[in-house]
Specification:
The chain has 202 residues and is an alpha/beta fold. The chain is 28% helix and 25% strand. It comes from Streptomyces parvus.
């Protein structure tokens, strides 16, 4: 059975920040589930920059089905958690079921990858205190208020937590996250003979 990784997201998540880790982790041989407040077709968005705008713009993105609702998630069935950004974390951080899920991963010291506005969720659960993180740069005050040390760089690893600023940093983010996964006994995919394998050829 493939090892399972959970992505938690919702409407108005950034398309690339959901679908890139989803497909990248599938490529590595993991099974990936997407959980949301309810089982439905999620509507993602595209955040980009245009001349004359002081901040990013938002346009309709892809749609994608959620595999299960937060209330159906058994955190113990997953070896790692991914928290994409976009506008979704702004309201998801208030979801009691999601807060329990996130807390379970941190309590078990299992790998967590967060990007862009995703750290709003981990900040709301109180699990960033004393950690080094990055996030979308406008979130620096939020990260500091959560007790974290903010670093404006493409990816930051602090123990099992890997954070990144936004989708332009995807390569560095997943490179570091996969390194954390492979160093975790439960996340090191093995061949039938028990010899560690790397489907990507690393």
């Amino acid at each position: 059975m493939p090892q399972k990784i959970l992505i938690v997201t919702g409407d108005a998540a950034e398309s690339l920040e959901v679908l890139y880790p989803y497909q990248r982790l599938l490529e590595e041989g993991y099974e990936v589930d997407i959980a949301a407040p309810e089982r439905k077709t999620l509507r993602f968005v595209v955040h980009d920059f245009e001349p004359g705008f002081d901040t990013y713009t938002e346009k309709p993105g892809y749609t994608w089905p959620a595999d299960l609702s937060f209330s159906e998630v058994d955190p113990g069935a997953y070896i790692a958690l991914v928290i994409p950004g976009g506008r979704a974390p702004e309201y998801l951080r208030n979801n009691a079921e999601l807060r329990k899920i996130v807390g379970a991963f941190f309590s078990a010291d299992r790998p967590v990858a967060q990007i862009c506005h995703g750290p709003l969720i981990t900040a709301a659960t109180g699990h960033l205190s004393g950690r080094a993180v990055t996030a979308y740069p406008a979130l620096e005050p939020d990260m500091q208020s959560a007790g974290a040390t903010f670093q404006d760089t493409e990816a930051v690893t602090d123990g099992p937590l890997v954070s990144s600023r936004a989708w332009p940093d995807h390569a560095a983010w997943m490179r570091q996250f996969l390194k954390v996964l492979r160093s975790t006994p439960s996340g090191n995919l093995s061949s039938p003979s028990g010899t560690p394998s790397s489907p990507s050829g690393d």
